[in-house]
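Two records follow; treat each independently.
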Amino acid sequence: MTDDRPSSAHFAQAVRCHRAGRLEEAARLYRAALSADPGDAEVHYALGVLELQAGRSRLAIKELERAASLAPGYIEAWEALGTAHAQSGAFAAAATAFESIVALHPDHLPALVNLGIAQRRLGRVRDALESHRQAVAVDASSSLARFNLGCTLADAGDADAAMEALRVTLSIEPGHVAAMTRLAGLLVDQARHDEALGWYREVLRVRPDAPRAHYNLGVALQAAGRNAEAANAFEIAIRRDPRDMDAWNNLCISLLRDGRPAAALAACEGYLRITPAHLCKPLAYKAVALLELGRRDEALAILDVDRLLLRRSLPVPAGFDSMHAFNGALARHVLAAGDLEFEPRDKATRGGRQTGELFASTDAAIAALVSAIELAIQDFVAALRASLPTHPYTQRLPQRWRLTGWAVVLDRLGHQQPHFHPDGSVSGVYYVRLPPSMHGARNDAGCLEFGRVAGAIGGRAEPLLNTMRPEEGLLLLFPSYFYHRTIPFEDSQPRISIAFDVMPTG
């Protein structure tokens, strides 16, 4: 572009202001330049970069899209546009921008890497692998390309290949903190604790101030069963960042595992102080610590099933002739779900299948169930605020929330291991279909049990147990911090339920 273009004088001034960090003055001058020449792609690009630096992604995207449309070969504009979209969480649009660069220059290393990162964030792992492999082919000595290939291989479940790529990254750039951290995490997953600890300690040697370094070390020590050392690492992490909720969470767990309930109780109180008012997870650990200390009445106040649980038999929803027809429609929808997965990873379901998100469906039966659940939640929250206004759980009930749900299909001997829902506020279950052996049964097979703590937490005290017998058409609501499990049953017919969480949104 020549110096005699209409925008030139304002543009030169704007660039000087931009370089000096006077962003608002520069923005005004860029806009003046565009008033003189609205078709100047370079000015649109520069203004877009400025808006991106100022944290105004929407305005940045508008200017950068204009620059790229005016000059389709303008690589820098496409790069900045992709970055702006990625920063705003629009990874599909980011991928499109980086694809535009790769279409023009197939060997453009930064675009290939950024394209792979966007594809990975979209869950397009195979596409991301191809992009990162192309990046490595362009420059085998690029630690950036190797590192991202390793991370994507890990996402794809190929841990051995991922670790090899990360080791190559470290041979290229020995002090690559992110590569050491990711490699150590993969080693923890394989129970290769000594190797993992070695890499985490190397991170601390290279970068003593590396974010999360002490926390990561604590996680590895905890996984190795070295709970006293893990607690020390989490305490250091907390001293560095007193609001690190993950460190507080794991400190509580390590202290309980290490048989130090008094210290765990103190940690729970600290955790509660820094936790957002609408999250109640620390109460799960506090109840365990109180039980371990023999303070059963105080634990019972936190785990009071009689006062903190709602049990409701749903009426027949509009549009259905009977509860049998309604539950039949729900069962058919659940069993036909394409994402019904056997024993999904990181879930409590054993000997059964579980869906992903269920409540996004437009199915009439699901919509009717969601409406009934929402009404029950409103009643539950209102009743607690009226009857137990000072209870620590009531005080943490959120004002704003969203509902998420999934279905669980348990087969013979199927069950759910003891767990609680750490990110929820109110949790619940609706019973769709029970196997014949559970109708009128006198034993606890297939029942829902509250109070049994997960083995991973430990605990030697006698738990406060309560058992709830399921019934078809029954809805239960309870605090998300309640530990619960299901008891295995003997039957050839499945047990179908729909579970859900109230997720606080602020």
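The next record belongs to a different protein.
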Amino acid sequence: MASSLMSTQCPAPVLDAALGQRVFARLHEIGFDGRGMTRPSYGEGENRAHALFESVAWEHGLEVRRDWAANLFITIPGQNRSLPAVMTGSHADTVPCGGNFDGAAGAVAGLLVLCAWARAGYRPERDTTLIVTRAEESVWFPISYLGSRTAFGLLDPALLDTPRSDDGTSLREHMLACGAQPELCGRASVLNAADIDCFVELHIEQGPVLLEADVPVGIVTGICGSTRYRSAVIHGQYAHSGATPRRFRSDAVMAGASMMMALHEAWRQVEAEGEEMTLTFGVCQTDPAQANFAAVPGRLELVIDIRSRNEDLLERMNGLVIEQARRVESDFNVTVDLGPRTRSTPAIMDAGLQAEAEKLAASMNIPVVSMASGAGHDAATFAGQGIPTEMLFVRNENGSHNPDESMEFDDFLYGVRLLEHLLRQRASRP
């Protein structure tokens, strides 16, 4: 086989755009729920998406394996397999009623690169691997970067009992149903950071920065971390709306409103001081079975999501959340149960990879801008292991986590071309 392989200095292999379009179309068929895409983590849709990537890989003669948690690895072998590998990848699960490009774009991009190399007969100096992770979307299991964490052996076995949000069935049971081996958690062979040269993840942008800048590709400087309360509840007391004066009320909604406005004002002050963060209350609801027009609300459920690249700021804001919870308890005669806190650590992208990407983009006449990622990604797990890591964003209209994601295919190909050149430059090094 080696005699038929091209040298590492061969011209750029040709990307199969039609293959990419077919894979996206098939992913749409797999995930379409009547409005958007729904491929739950460790669910049938995610299984079928992984099977699709595996089938295309086999057709192109690529190596395929799965780890104990059913993460998928697709590899084109290097000439010196003892060298640290170059890696790329993303995920194939979605949020409920999401779009077809979040996560999937990065997985498809890596697949197109490896398939193009295989068709061209190009064999890199070192192994180059696409990982299609499981369960990146923590809406299903409240665990950040679940798939990539399992790949590095970072999952606490106690978390295998975590129920999935839609059906209450444990992560362990869902893993078993997908052919994974949760009994190997903590014992199976996992990725070793010393064996990885770098990790580069392509992803759609999930905000408007590239649209505003009118450029197709972003070079990411860092990934925000988060502090979250996913199941906070304010307990007050239901009472007649007309017969209960204010001084006798335990109004859960007013307590929540006061708490949220205080945190929002703190956010405004943070920005005025030149720091960056976001604050979101994505759920804020009364009990539909008991709340009504003529009753003082006795219960409010809410979620709190704070993100920043500054870990100290995240901790300060977390302290403020607790402080405000205690304040409204006193001011409004309520009880605030914040519930468990979940968090993820900010990640800084590798300066060398950023510089390489910028230089390559200039040589390819691809307009780029440098930017931060407000959303979390599997790349943060790789960076957290000390692996040189970079992300490439592709322009995408209408945001993300909704059915209206609108990535132009030409923009996608700009991103894939830059990814291919960057991976090949890294993989060709002896």
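Discussion point: The domain at 226-344 is CATH 3.30.70.360 (Alpha-Beta Plaits). How would you locate this feature using only the token line?
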